[in-house]
Design brief:
Length: about 425
Amino acid sequence: MAAPEAPAKPGGPAWRALPPAPVTWLRELVRRIGAPVGSVIFAFVVGAIIVLLTGGDPVLAFQGLFCGGIGVFCSGSTYGGITPAFQISTTIVFATPLIFTGCSVALAFRGGLFNIGAQGQLTMGAIAAAAVGIHFAGWPGFILFPAVLLVGTLAGAAWGGIVGVLKAFTGAHEVVTTIMLNYIAFGFLYYLLRGGPLQLAGQPEISPQIGAGAFLPRFISSTGQFLGEPGAIYQAHTGILIAFVVAFIFYFILRRTALGYELRAVGQNQRAARYAGISYRRTVIITMLIAGAFSGIAGGVEIAGLSHNLTIRYATDTTGFDAIAVALLGQGAAIGIVLSAFLFAALRVAGPVMESNANVSQNLVDVIEALILFSIAANALRRVKIPWLQRRPASSDKEPPPPLAGMTIESTKPAEVGDTA
């Protein structure tokens, strides 16, 4: 009979096998950011190969991207006429609405919904914000400014809420309804600006300006100068600070509220959520209301901070669709969405600079963005299990099935809890 083993000492192998807290944290960090960072690197490597194979210079191409997007590596006579501060300012302008709409799409994703209607919700928010800012232009700024943002937020929420109600009570697929509502929003915009009530007299496809009290302040005054350039060229405004606040609200809702728990539970497993007493209908409606509100306030901030009037460009803008890429690359996390928004904004701003200075078509930006999404999707597909592709044991290794195998005793199956919307 073998002698019993002595208990392991605290300093023994079993104790040392437990990883320390910093190591565990580092592993979790690598696991979370590994796929997005790897996808970006993969896209840039393939992009460099494409440039090389088509007779271009990858080094010059990427220098153009970095100079045009974030204002670095702008050395040499080729980039002598580029102002880095202006490029950074423009990137901030492009990133601001992407953060709002990225949070909108990501929130719906976490709830198991596909919000393809962020652009329509943004458009409705811009329409409502412009209407209030124009018709009540004489109001003092401390009333007009919050009214413009609030009305834009509510308009986007209402547009998203329609999708939630249809999904909850009729089962209408949100992809179809959001796409159709996009077209309705664009058509409504055309109606208002082409001979409609918001058209500026004698100038189709543009509205009058909103009241000056609703203007968002810019970081650099348009009446002065900055780095030898007129301040009017720097359009970065304080709407980016509102975007950061919305990103924090997105994080707080998901991670620090009961609604966030219910939203994630419904997104992961609807049946289990129902068994836990979570109302599927209520959660879907609230999710789409908040998602629409995030996109709606993006429209209000665009009106108050950038254009100051309603134009036809919102019907052809791609911000709401680019937000899908931002949400996917950001992995549904607030900090990831912010960083992804700046990445995609920098690529968009840098494209023309790369084309004019490195003689590489700015369509390379579209290729890089598509490769990023392809790589992210490929990582997601690795987690999909297809039963008929799984390895099956050889017939000789099979054990005889237990008695009553494959039979279901109905009396022991719990009944589904009814929805309590």
